[in-house]
Amino acid sequence: MGENLQLKTPSDLINGAVGNFSIKIDNLKPNTAYENMYSIRWYNPGTQLFSEYVDVPRFKTLMIKPVAIDSNKVTVTPYPDHVVIKDGTTRDLQVEEATLKAFKVSDGSIVASSSNNTISIPDLTMETAYTDQYGIYWENSVGKTSKVTLDFTTTTTKPVDIDPSKINVEVAPYSVVIKDLTPRETSSKELTLHIYDVSTGKDINSSSTGVNSVQLTGLTPETSYDSKYGLYWTNAGGTSKRVTFMFTTAKLPKPVDIDPDKITVVPITRGAVITDNTSRDTKFEKSQMHLYRVSDGVVRYDAPGDKLNVVEAYGLNPETAYIEKYGIYWSNSSGESNRVKVSFTTLSDTTKSDTTTDDTTTE
């Protein structure tokens, strides 16, 4: 019976073929150096004799071609001006000594390279779809993997934070228009300005796309609002910082002046019903109509709440002419309208009375 080589490994003793002057070492890693890990000797099974062990000299296994990219393991994270690509394919980078490369499909030019499994493609355009325009592959000294093309759309940049000193508030009695004059690019179809209630954090209103102003309604005239409301911008890229502001609503407008041609006077037995048909928004003005005595300016009667533009003079003498002895005007907290005198003759009274409720019997 002939002799055979024996290979001693860190965990085992392997017999080679009888008479064969070589023995194979299996289960090694590519591109890896091995030293003082293996030794060999000759062994004679018949005589049970063996030679001394001799260490296998240091050796290094050859490099292998990079593992092919699994396209299902590739993730793309878009940003406004670049994307980050990560290849999650299982590989041993120390063994492969490979470089990840990003390229432009149109001409094959390399736009970026990386020694790890993450790479960034720079200099892209915001809010733009890129379909099969860029790709990636791995390469080392042995070869390269197949190329994998990418589909992605870049995002919008996060809105610029609001400069509080650039907030402009245009006040009215019941509403305000808030403008953010902070320099920014408003062409993005995603950019929206929001106004919110500070106490609840909930939005109250938002602007049209790309518009730098928003309206707040339902306010009280001549009232200070200190940091009760705030502003912020949003788009697909994120949200700006929230900024509060303060303002005081405007005074009520002075009542619209009375158009004398729009006054109607209907005489009654002991007075008259005066109606002012001048066009006005009484709810907006929060104004009230008054009947006053011309001689001393004293208000005799106010229009009732259910008929704001109608006032009745009563308790006067029947069958008596009152020529410009009474007049009407409107007032609110901001002032008065013009005063307009009226004339009328009361009707006859079938019920005789020696007294009246007004002091005009002496006039």
Structure description:
The chain is mainly β. The C terminus is likely disordered. The strands form eight sheets. Strands 1, 2, 4, 5 and 6 form a five-stranded antiparallel β-sheet that branches. Strands 17, 18, 20, 21 and 22 form a five-stranded antiparallel β-sheet that branches. Strands 25, 26, 28, 29 and 30 form a five-stranded antiparallel β-sheet that branches. The chain is built from two helices and 30 strands. It is rod-shaped, with a radius of gyration of 47 Å.
Mean pLDDT: 91
Give the helix tally: 2
Which structural category do the helix and sheet elements fall into?
Answer: mainly beta
Rg of Cα set? 47 Å
Mass-distribution shape = rod-shaped
Keywords:
2% helix, mainly beta, 5-stranded antiparallel sheet, 363 residues
Can you summarize this structure?
With 363 residues, the chain is mostly beta strands.
Secondary structure elements and pairings:
Elements: E1 4-8, E2 13-18, E3 33-34, E4 39-44, E5 49-50, E6 54-55, E7 59-60, E8 74-78, E9 83-87, H1 93-96, E10 99-104, E11 110-114, E12 118-121, E13 129-139, E14 148-153, E15 167-171, E16 176-180, E17 192-197, E18 203-206, E19 213-216, E20 224-235, E21 238-239, E22 243-248, E23 263-268, E24 271-276, H2 282-285, E25 288-293, E26 299-302, E27 310-313, E28 321-332, E29 335-336, E30 340-345
Antiparallel strand pairs: 1-2, 1-4, 3-7, 4-5, 4-6, 8-9, 9-12, 10-11, 10-13, 13-14, 15-16, 16-19, 17-18, 17-20, 20-21, 20-22, 23-24, 24-27, 25-26, 25-28, 28-29, 28-30
